[in-house]
Amino acid sequence: MPRNAEVIRQWSILRDLESSRRMSIDEMAQRTGVTTRTIRRDLEALQSAGFPLYDDVQDGKRYWILEHRAFRRLDDTGFTLAELSALYFSRTLVENLAATPFQRDVSSAFDKLAGALTPGMRQFLDRLPLAIQTKAEPGTRVAASGDSPEAKRALPGTRVAQLLDAILHHRQVQMRYHSFSSNREKEYLIEPYRLVFALGGLYLFAFVPEYSDLRTFAIDRIMNLSVTEERFEPMDLEEDAFAHSLGVHQGTPPERIEVAFDPQIARYVKGRIWHATQAVHEQPDGGVVVELTVSNDWALRSWILGFGALARVISPASLGAEIAADLDKARSLYASGLK
């Protein structure tokens, strides 16, 4: 059994209890696909962790209930004034990072948090974004006017809720997806594993039995989907999604990359974390060489090209040739327009 199966199952129990007024142990066992004995152990563990769960007999049958009002007074939890203020102010950061399907829930959560602050405190904190601001990450997708009627009807929030349910209960999903690379729609049967927010977009990480491969799907390109009753046995994923890519690509084997940067940009480059595998080597002329073990994909090439003449690929030679070809092509396009 995967190491995270227990915590995922217990989270699904909490989620089911939160959305239902009451549930029996038999109902929870049926939804999660485990024995009633396992459910009892899960409920004991959740109670020990402090979740407000209790059982009650109604009409001769025992049900379990999650107390919805147990956390109604946030100011009784022990937060200090500074902590409450920091959480409230952080809404300007979190709301910018929130993917579209979560935007309303994030705003609602912070509105409730505001109830623990006095009007004077809120008025003061609301002025802070004038001094400290955030900017949405470039590349966040906006729904185009030409999107299909099916895509407009399938609201992102609905798709996310369905996918979360499928992930938590290990259910297969049938979906129709519009591929960016082939510019066509295709039907997929998938086994969903996780949702990932990266580079301004929300992505689904799923196993495709037809290809015996893990693949990445952009949520906003899912035209429609339905959660089936068929369960799957999840694999234990050892690494994070997109672990080897500078972007949102999956599956390309990582390789050793070396890029030299001009002294003019060296201080900026070595002051940033570009990837977990990076090693920065300072050079006698003041420049730096950055060594990465990453996927040789579009995201890597785009990153290098973004530095223009201030970056030069050392290895592999094939990547250097690709970058040179891209620069030659760009130069020819500009040259023809400047004559």
Structure characterization notes:
- There is one protein chain.
- Strands 6-5-4-3-7 form a 5-stranded antiparallel sheet. Strands 9-10-8-11 form a 4-stranded antiparallel sheet.
- The protein has helices spanning 5-19, 25-32, 36-48, 81-89, 91-97, 103-114, 119-125, 149-153, 156-169, 263-270, 298-305, 317-338, and strands spanning 53-58, 61-66, 171-179, 184-198, 201-208, 213-218, 222-231, 254-261, 279-282, 288-295, 311-315.
- Helix content is 38%, strand content 25%.
Secondary-structure blueprint of this entry?
Blueprint: H1 5-19, H2 25-32, H3 36-48, E1 53-58, E2 61-66, H4 81-89, H5 91-97, H6 103-114, H7 119-125, H8 149-153, H9 156-169, E3 171-179, E4 184-198, E5 201-208, E6 213-218, E7 222-231, E8 254-261, H10 263-270, E9 279-282, E10 288-295, H11 298-305, E11 311-315, H12 317-338
Antiparallel strand pairs: 1-2, 3-4, 3-7, 4-5, 5-6, 8-10, 8-11, 9-10
Helix pairs in contact: 2-3
For the record, the count of structural domains works out to 4
Number of strands: 11
| Largest sheet data | 5 strands, antiparallel
Q: What general outline do the C-alpha atoms trace? A: globular
Q: Using the coordinates above, name the CATH class of the largest domain.
A: Alpha Beta
Summarize the structure.
It is built from 12 helices and 11 strands. The chain has 339 residues and is of the alpha+beta class.
Features:
single chain; 339 residues; alpha+beta; Arc Repressor Mutant, subunit A; SH3 type barrels; 4 domains; five-stranded antiparallel sheet; four-stranded antiparallel sheet; 12 helices; globular
